[in-house]
Structure formats: C-alpha cells, structure tokens
Amino acid sequence: MELRHLRYFVAVAEELSFTRAAARLHIGQPPLSQQIQALEHEIGARLFERNKRRVLLTEAGRLFLADARRMLALSEQAKETARRAHLGEAGELRVGFTFSTPFTPLFAQVVRRYRQQYPGVLLTFHEIATKPQLAKIEARELDVGFVRPGPMPLPDTVAVTLLRHDPLRLVLPADSPLARKKTIAVKDLAGQAFVVFPKGAGTGIYHQIFDMCRAAGFAPDIAMEAGEPSTIIGLVGAGCGISVLPSSFEGIHMEGVVYRPLADPAATTSMLLARHADGGGPLVDAFVAIAQAASQSA
User: Fold this and answer.
1) What pLDDT, on the 0 to 100 scale, is given for residue 53?
2) pLDDT at 151
C-alpha cells in the first residue's frame, strides 16, 4: 500500500464520485478506478458500494477513511519535521560544558538566543570535563562542547571556535600572607601546597598549572585533589592549600576564601566551542553562529 493509494481513496470517499475525484486528483477516471480496486484487493474488503447512480462507503470503507486520514496527516508531519531538521529548526542538539561554563555569562546568552531562534530544537546538556568531552565529540556522542583545553592537544577530528579569554585567579585562604600582596606572580607560589583536580579528570587547568609552575622554575606541591570546583574552593577555605581556577569561579562566594589575580601573561584560559571537524549539520552550524555572534558582542 502506497500513500498515493490512500490519497486516491480519501478523494473518492470525500467526493463520493469517481468523476469528481479524478478531476480533483488530475488523473483519468479509469486509472483511478483500477487503483481503488487494487487497494480493495490488497485490504481484502470492499470499501465502496457503487452503481451507475451513486457511490457509497461501506462500513469497512468508513472505518478505513479515519485511519487513512491519520496516516496522510502523519506523512505530512514527517515531511515537515524532516524539512525543519534540514533547516536546523528541529531535532536534538547535545551540548557539553565544563564545570566553569555556567558561571560565564556568555553561556547563558548563547543558550537563551538559541532557544529563542530555534524553539523546536531540543537541547540536552552534559556537564563533562574537557578531555572526555573531546572524546565524545570524536565519537559523535556530543554535537558541540564548551571546553577549556589549556595546553592539552586537540584531536585532528575536532574543530574549535575561540569564544573568549578569561584570566586565571589564585584561590587563597583569606588569612594567607599572599592575600596581602598587591601583585602576585606564579613564582611566588613556590613552596605552597596546591589543591587541584585529579590528573585523570581531563581538565585543561590541571596541565596549565603544571606548565606555569615549571616555567616559573618549580614543580607544584600537590597536597590534595578534588573532582568538583566547589570542593576545591572549600578545601582552600579549610586551609588545605591554594588553587588556581578560571575567573568565572569568583562567583562562588565562600567564607574564608579570597580570589586574587596573577600577574603572569600566561595566566589566562580560553573558552572554545568544539565540534566534529567533519561538520554536524545545520543544528550545529546554527549553534556555532549564535555563539560566535554572542562572543563578539560580549
């Protein structure tokens, strides 16, 4: 059974005339009659009672008409859904983001603008560190991702768009002597105990801390590791050490903790929007375009 058979049947059922239905469908009456007969043969039931004077629906035809109309409506809906998906107006977009991303106003601006322009697209969000995000984008398990790779190498299969640069902030206990200094350089952190993300967490900031400290002539003394930034900040407040985090985390206010700038030019981090290098279709293209526009206006 083909959709055209359903359209032919509905036209005859609504017109109750093969002549009028043929004119409405722009086909000849004999081919229309043959198609209806073929449909009845396939179904195994007569759909019309017909004689020289009139055409009437049988009980089977009356019930079949309701289903035929639903199937035709669903076919039109399917075509419209496919058309909208092709235009980037429908479907699902899987968005990854790092722990610091929601604290950046740009993230909220991008999501808000995208929702306003493409209300038919379902956005699903996944909080994942940078390295596993990149792996999921490679595997096509994420469509786009807000990442901070730092010195971490990027896979060849991932393309990125620079959205913004953010300074890094030194996270200190409020009573630390460093908190009283007007200017703090990375070299001033030698001998301090650090609280950092675990190496296996896949965050760019972990590698960046080590690279900055080595460039300043020392290796950081790792006192504790924690998987959540709020936990890191809490451990700093408890006197377990110091840390370095993106400036967006200054939005987490915790008693006994202060944030201070680092004077070194290398003490910055970049937020990038990652996607598969082979492209992700109109949904991804529209999201990237909105993110670029938002970053330029920020």
Assistant:
1) 82
2) 85
Sign of the torsion formed by the C-alpha atoms of 245, 251, 256 and 261: positive
Architecture of domain 3-86: Orthogonal Bundle (1.10)
Residue 247 and residue 271: Cα distance in Å, rounded? 12
Alpha helices in the chain (DSSP H): 3-15, 18-25, 29-43, 59-86, 105-117, 130-138, 204-215, 229-237, 282-297
- Distance linking the first and last C-alpha atoms of the chain: 56
Cβ 275 vs Cβ 144: under 8 Å:
yes
Alpha-carbon distances, residue 98 vs 85, 175, 211, 227, 296 (angstroms) = 27, 30, 20, 12, 21
Could you tell me whether strands 48-50 and 268-276 are parallel, antiparallel, or unpaired per DSSP bridges?
Answer: unpaired
Token pair for 8: 């032919």
Same-fold call for 3-86 versus 165-269: no
The Cα diameter of the chain in Å comes to 105
Would the CA dihedral through 79, 82, 87, 93 be positive or negative? positive
pLDDT score, position 2: 86
What is the pLDDT at residue 90? 64
Determine if the pTM surpasses 0.85.
no
Q: Which residue ranges in the chain fall short of pLDDT 70? A: 87-90, 298
Looking at CATH, the fold of the domain delimited by 92-162+273-297 is given as D-Maltodextrin-Binding Protein; domain 2 (3.40.190)
